[in-house]
Amino acid sequence: MQRNFPQLSELRPLMAFERPSLDFRSTRLARAADLWDLRRIARRRTPKPAFDYVDGGAGREVTLERNRRAFADVELLPSILGGHASVDLSTTIAGARSALPVGIAPTGFTRFMHAEGEEAGVGAAAATGIPYTLSTMGTRSIEEVAAFQPNSRRWFQLYLWNDHDASLDLVNRAAAAGYDTLMVTVDTAIAGQRLRDVRNGMTIPPKLNLRTVLDASYRPEWWFNFLTTDSLKFASLSGTSHALPDLINSMFDPTLSLDDLRWLRSVWPGKLFVKGVLTVEDARKSLDAGADGLVVSNHGGRQLDQVPASLHAVSAIRAEVGPDVELILDSGIMSGGDIVAALCAGADFTLIGRAYMYGLMAGGRQGVQRALDILAEQMRVATTLLGVSSVAELGPQHLRLDGRVASTPAGGPVTARP
Q: Are 384 and 84 spatial neighbours (Cβ–Cβ below 8 Å)?
């Protein structure tokens, strides 16, 4: 074998070393290839009670694992030889356009995970052109979020309180502040048994003891932000500091009924979605009571354990309600491929909670933006390889779920066949 000495001219292109950067946040986020990488960064940088609140589920976390297994077991079925130069990932949901078929789900206690909190979420959502949902249990108020991003598309998630006048005040404030969609959560009559939170003594504001101080001590950025920003509280529940299950069980209305849903429909001027639907019976009842659409959700496995995966529920609900009712799916999404699978299974749109919170904990607004960018690129690759030119073309013909290929009969709703 003949050997030659390398020429300097040949080596020069191979020695283009990156310049060191002092922007450590951007550097670590750029190295995250997927949302699981962001999760690993988040775990390193966030105190255990905050990380576990996001990462955990109810009971033995059977539903939490079931949600992920449902997506992992999906088979996507590409159509070949019908290539397209580009893919349109935009869609219409609740009467307006979204740049991606995904929005940010409502999350409580958000500034406990990272001081940028709701500002990071709504800022990244606005920059991406997707909806942002503010939680009743948010750590910024309805008006603060609207003022921070006045041109963003904002939805408001409502837990109905025992004090219905207080709930009505929230609804009216959301309408006045330009929130166009009300999302009524119906699966939280009482708090789920989130055992990680019990073990961690999770409260808002957090109670400082030797264990929590030591846990935060080697996460200096989180600790510095916590000490140097305004106090952490529920923006709608100023001054409240309770153990989380006690707070939910004392404030939320466990008698929430269809009459309450009809009442909310009568006082809310925009679109109304019911969040927490898993059965065809509840889907029909919600629509009959005035809902414009449904969020097929098991609360990310954080309420009743051992319920169906949202991905498995959405196909049956689509078959029940037909093609014209808008269905949003959440719970378990951790990739753009998961979003594509949800759309193929019958959803019109999706929401991400944990997925964006991992980005938030990993790097504030930049981290949320990184999570959204990763999802967008994964969706672009998946849809291109499936052989479609837009997300509107995705359907049951592209999905095998639990060994079955879904099909759409002519003129009828989505069903499934062996």
A: yes
What mean pLDDT is reported for the chain?
89
Tokens of residue 319, six digits: 């078959």
* CA torsion through residues 161, 133, 92, 315, sign: negative
Q: What is the pLDDT of residues 222-253, one digit of tens each?
A: 888 888 898 877 776 654 545 556 666 666 77
Q: Which residue, among 376, 364, 407, has the nearest Cα to 46 in the 3D structure?
A: 364
pLDDT for the residue numbered 244: 56
CA 302/CA 300 separation, integer angstroms: 5
Q: Is the pLDDT of residue 369 over 70?
A: yes
pTM: 0.89
d(CA 225, CA 29): 19
Q: What angle do CA 69, 74, 77 make, to 5 degrees?
A: 170
Calculate the alpha carbon distances from 349 to 67, 104, 339, 340 in Å.
Answer: 17, 11, 8, 10
Q: Is the dihedral of CA 273, 275, 280, 282 positive or negative?
A: negative
Asked whether the beta carbons of 236 and 136 are under 8 A apart, the reply is yes
At position 130, the amino acid (one-letter code) is I
CA 400 from centroid of its chain's CA atoms: 24
CA dist list (Å): 215 to 49, 50, 208: 9, 11, 10
For the stretch 310-343, what's the b/e string if a residue is b when 16 or more beta carbons lie within 10 angstroms of its beta carbon? bbbbbbbbbbbbeeebbbbbbbbbbbbbbbbbbb
Contact residues for 218 (Cβ-Cβ < 8 A; gap 6+): none
Give the count of beta carbons closer than 10 Å to the beta carbon of residue 52.
Answer: 18
Residue 267 to residue 261: CA distance in whole angstroms: 10
Q: Cα-atom radius of gyration of the chain, to the nearest Å?
A: 22
Q: Which of 84, 114, 164, 299 is catalytic?
A: 299
For domain 35-417, give the fold.
TIM Barrel (3.20.20)
Q: Is 231 left (phi over 0), alpha (psi -120 to 50) or beta?
A: beta
16-39 burial: b if 16+ Cβ within 10 Å, else e: eeeeeeeeebeebbeebeebebbb
Strand partners for 351: 103
Asked if pLDDT for residue 348 goes beyond 90, the answer is yes
For the question of residue 242 being annotated catalytic, the response is: no
The residue written with tokens 């999570």 in the block is 371
> What is the pLDDT, as a whole number, of residue 184?
97
Classified as helix, coil or strand, 22 is coil
Neighbours of 399 (CB within 10 A): 25
Q: What is residue 299's DSSP assignment?
A: G
